[in-house]
Amino acid sequence: MTVLARSTAEQAKRNASLLADTPLAAARIESHVLPFAVDLSASRLTNADALSALEKRAATIAITSLISLAKAGDIDHLGGGLELIPALLMTLGIVDYDRRHFSIEHGHTSIGYYAALSALGFLPESRVVDRFRRSLDIAGHVSWVPGGTAIGSGRLGVTVPVTAGQALGLRARKGEDALVVCHTGDAGWISGQALNGFNAASLHQAPVLFVMHRNHIQLSGTTASIMDRDPRAMIAAMGIEILEIPSLMDRAALFAGYAEGAARARAGRPTLIYPVGFGGHGQPSVTVQGFGDMYGIGHEVKAFAATHGVALDTPIHVPGSLMSYRDAHAMIECVFYVNHLKGGEAHHDGGMKGRDGAAALANPMLQLTAAEQAALTALDGAARRTVVTDARPEKGTPNLPLTDAEAAAVALPGTDKWVSARAGSEAAYAAVAKKYPSQCFFVSCDLNPSTKLGKAAALVPANQRYELSIEEQAAALVADGLSMTGNDPQLNVFATFAAFMEGIAREGFEMWRYQRNLNGLNEGLNVVMHLSHVGACTGRDHFSGWSLDWINFALGYMPFLRRFYAPADSGSAFIAVRDACAAFGGHIVAIPRDNLPVLTKQGTSEPLFTAGEAWTPATAWRRHDGATVAVLALGAPAYLAGIASDAALAQGVAADVYVINGFPLAAGFLDDIGKRYARVITVEDGLIGTSESGLRGFAGLVSSGLYGSGAALDHFGILDPHVAPSDHFVQVWEHYGITDALITRSILAK
């Protein structure tokens, strides 16, 4: 066993142990929760006392959890978490986990999220209190738990386009009642992902209701000191309707906002609820004393103001969403901070470290009134409702397959001329879309003529194809969101140039990296990321159009993928796409642009790859008795390996050639190669590194896999990309030494 294999096996044991010690890591969890619901069709909020009581219960759980975390010498973002609770509970009252979902963009509100779910009975209170940020299931950022959101969050802004995709998918699959409520902060909205996501939601009339938590505080200062922009104007410019209410803490106003906003969103008018606050910013004036009276903490505000020499009649602005809401002392500090008053302190972290936990829990904003106690007692005594949360299907679960007969019926290019591999992928997507039109979704970025997705997209309903111009980053995230509409079979394809995916669209892959499944597995979503124009095989473009790191880039995401495909011709491209569509999971399909020969079977003119055959990681293309040299060829340059093998054979040296169709390689494949051959050569159209950066790409994978085998190694790929011709790919390859003549020389080498 190699060092890497041994380490991998040991890590697998530790993973299994962690999962076994995680109560909420299961494929299916049945929750018995309080029968709390909010009826948006009613004229008013009828269960306000119950909602207020649940808010206080959740806030108490959150504070208690942070007291526990403080004992471990740590802190977390209590302030934002407490602020989230009132609006989140309203949201939880309307979602049904079928047609109506929710998401949270500002992931550091996680303790409020877990506490709200616990208050309703989805999560054990003891788990939230004792294991927050110290377990797999109750993580430090918003993550998928029973009753929770399917969209993990963390990077500010990212969740906005993902939510747009989820809402679009729900509308297409579930009908007019589809709705997603997205909770956003007043910092992440300015990110490119968020603005593009708002635009995507508006452009395609997604049924999304955004709720902004406008507390005027960011990590390192007030929003005014960091990004002094009015979110309303810029978000409205993206096509989102703005619905103003006084405060998210005003239950009646919040209910009215939800009712109106949800109606607009379902009508194809995505809407943002914006809490304007009180005093300043064109609102009626309010004083320090008025703020205290407003929230029933007049005595506490008076004492705090006196300590810091602030007059009670000082005019202030009270944000429409209050950081550290119901943690009275911290909340007062936040309001003073926003207004630049002495004693003010930001509570971005707002933990309990160094604080009197008992005093925090004893503050008047956590105490139940008689009416609230009665409502909560009645709710606790009522029959519970059952909510089932299922994990996403495992990788490889059947999705949208073509039968062998259906695949074989597709006409692929012949072997008589060179043709782009895109012809094969185009035919495969079209065949799947024709068979499953209601289950296929395509996201494009003004590139359908180049990526060849247009033919398939034209076969599905108009509300299942989305053109997002050059918003590649948001488009990739929209595709991620589409895959979160449910666990039924569905194809979600995002296509762009590989060079764009390496850069601006990479966030789509990053979502896979932190999107943990309910069962504890951090795995790719059910999305095909179609990367066209890989390598230097991109026509007569130059550096800016090349995707030289595409192999290493894709391999970096292999832990979260089902498969990564790198077809060498049109036939293998068809097989790759068919395979990707047939099974659930994250897939990368990497297609070269330029015309290439259709590979033929050894000694014949028959195509090496036919439409009806199954995909395999490697195909033995040239086989010779007694061969001691193997050429492992990945992607477009594979045909060069065949020419080189034939040329070497004419000189008396036999070399076997394997076309590597993608990854992961079959178990034991490289071990067998190392035992069978004395010399192994790799060929790829991608960056394989320099003396400064070390070996990378497919060459690096093979070198690692054959370590200790004794086999001599040689690698063909792109080395130093500083200087290169802007020419046809054949000339570019020649510049980098990727030629059949040089491969032949390597085969013949002693």
What would the keywords be for this entry?
750 residues, Rossmann fold, 5-stranded parallel sheet, alpha/beta
What would a concise description of this structure say?
The protein is an alpha/beta fold and 750 residues long. It has three domains: 43-389, Rossmann fold (3-Layer(aba) Sandwich), CATH 3.40.50; 404-596, Rossmann fold (3-Layer(aba) Sandwich), CATH 3.40.50.970; 618-748, Rossmann fold (3-Layer(aba) Sandwich).
Describe the structure in your own words.
- By secondary structure, the chain is α/β, with parallel strands linked by helices.
- The protein has 29 helices and 23 strands.
- The chain has a 7-stranded mixed beta sheet, with helices on both faces.
- The two termini are 29 Å apart.
Structural class: alpha/beta
What form results from the Cα inertia axes? elongated
| Count of the domains | 3
- Low-pLDDT parts are none
Overall residue-averaged pLDDT value: 94
Which sheet architecture does the biggest sheet show? 7 strands, mixed
Fourth CATH level, the homologous superfamily of the largest domain: Thiamin diphosphate (ThDP)-binding fold, Pyr/PP domains
Radius of gyration, whole Å: 29 Å
Instruction: Give the C-level CATH assignment of the largest domain.
Output: Alpha Beta
Task: Tell me the span between the first and last alpha carbons.
Answer: 29 Å
According to CATH, the fold-level topology of the largest domain is Rossmann fold
Please give the share of residues in helix.
Answer: 25-40%
Instruction: Tell me the β content.
Output: 5-15%
Total beta strands: 23
Instruction: Order the strands across the largest sheet as they lie in space.
Output: 12-11-13-14-16-15-21
What is the count of helical runs?
Answer: 29
CATH architecture of the largest domain: 3-Layer(aba) Sandwich
